[in-house]
Structure formats: structure tokens, C-alpha cells
Request: fold
Amino acid sequence: DVKVTQSSRYLVKRTGEKVFLECVQDMDHENMFWYRQDPGLGLRLIYFSYDVKMKEKGDIPEGYSVSREKKERFSLILESASTNQTSMYLCASQTGLVYGYTFGSGTRLTVV
Amino acid sequence: ELKVEQNPLFLSMQEGKNYTIYCNYSTTSDRLYWYRQDPGKSLESLFVLLSNGAVKQEGRLMASLDTKARLSTLHITAAVHDLSATYFCAVDVLQGAQKLVFGQGTRLTINP
Reply:
């Protein structure tokens, strides 16, 4: 089975801090994604990457950046965390057209 | 812009009853996915529907896809309490690169 691992389940950070959320997949997939999930707003795509060093903005990229230096690792960066970035963050890896997408366990980030 | 709409958004039902969740989407796609999410948890893949007329069944859940109508359904048969969760449909589209666009989710509560 494909495994998508997010390094932290819960994080509490202060306003203005630089925050790194890490995601690792173990199947050499090219496509990886970061979503955030908020009550009433569903899942919204922040950034995605279709290869090493390649990235594309999703629907809500403001305040975020990403890094993909190695194929298995896709990092989401909050350059200067703000309280409106308090959310559940979900990483996904595309398993292929037949099997779809596999999601990590999620990181619940609280910015205080 | 692709829109994916689920209805109902909230559903409370009795054990033993049948019900259907609907997922409409606004652009051409041959790939649709259903996910389940338990409170505080990540997304668990339920079904991958890859072509018009596709039907998949797992236990008390059955999903179907009509690409001409741009409609997918998730049917619950003889509901049991363990099926209480939030269910999401998501459509796979090519917009620059491959990505998933989610419906708002249907929160299903099954009462004994």
C-alpha cells in the first residue's frame, strides 16, 4: 500500500513564525498536493507539484510557498504564519489513474 | 471554473434505511472519487470511478458514475451506525496539471 506520511499531527505556532509542514510518499509518485480543510469551506488546493522542483499554484496560494527538492518529499512553507492559517492541512500523492490519490493523516495547525 | 456540488450537505437517518448522496460537477471528466472522513481524521478512499456507467460496491455502499449527466451517486443500503462520517466526492481534472476538485462534503449521521 502507498504510504503518505505527514511529519506532525498537531502543531501550535506563533504569529509571524516560519512554519514547515513536511510530507513524504514512498512510491516514487510524480504528483503531490497540499490542501487545507476548513469547516464550511471544504478542501481547497494550495499548491501542487508534478515533478522535482516543479510547482503550480492551486486555488489559494497566498501566504504559502512549497519546496520539492526530492521526488518523495513535498514541503509546505508558511513564510510568516498568521491566525487565519489555522487549519487542517492535508497532503496527497497521486497513486495513478486507476487508484487515485492517497492522503496523509493530516496536520492540524494552530497559529496563536 | 470547475464546480463540484454535493447534496444533501447534512443527512440524518435511521439505521436500516436506504439513502442516496448526489454529486454533480460542471465540466467534462471521466474520473471521480469518493472519500470518507471521520472526525479529526484524514480522507479514506472508498471508490474510484473511471468511466461512464462505472458502478462499484463495497458492503452497504454503492457508487455510480454518469459522465454524460455529470453526476455520481453514493447509495447507502440498510444503513448502520458505523457508516456515520462525512463523505466527499472529488473530480479529477486537467487544468495545467492533473488535480482533484472536491465537493463540499455530506455529513451523514445514522441514528440507532
User: Anything to note?
Assistant: Chain A has no helices and twelve strands. The interface with chain B takes residues 31, 33, 35, 42-43, 45, 48, 50, 56, 58, 90, 92, 94, 97-106, 108 of chain A (CB under 8 Å). The CA atoms of residues 3 and 26 of chain A lie 6 Å apart.
